[in-house]
# Entry
Amino acid sequence: MTIQECYDLMGGDYGEVAGRFVTEARVEKFAKMFLRDTSFEMLKQTMGQKDYKEAFRAAHTLKGVCQNLALKSLDGPVVELTDILRGYETLDVSGEKGQRIEELMDVIETQYRVIVSAIEQL
# Structure
């Protein structure tokens, strides 16, 4: 699989990331580095612990990784989750926000797995 095909499979923007990293080899190198990033695991762990301050930090880190790598399919839901968690000090998860957080976490996990699977095929 080429890196361009990988980006198509991941729902990423190859044109954007190629403009940033210039060569296919560099795009592939940085895409493979995604597999070593721990922010997704930290997000899942801290959300499970209801530690919304640390969950915000993990989501914010993951957001930056997604934006740098132009992982559009993951970036949107991570940005939305980050925005919700930004108010972690007063966050009430008993109502609609809590339901939306659960929905976003499901989407994020699904997209994360798609991206990891695609990168592992390189």
The chain is about 75% helix and 0% strand. The chain has a mean pLDDT of 97.
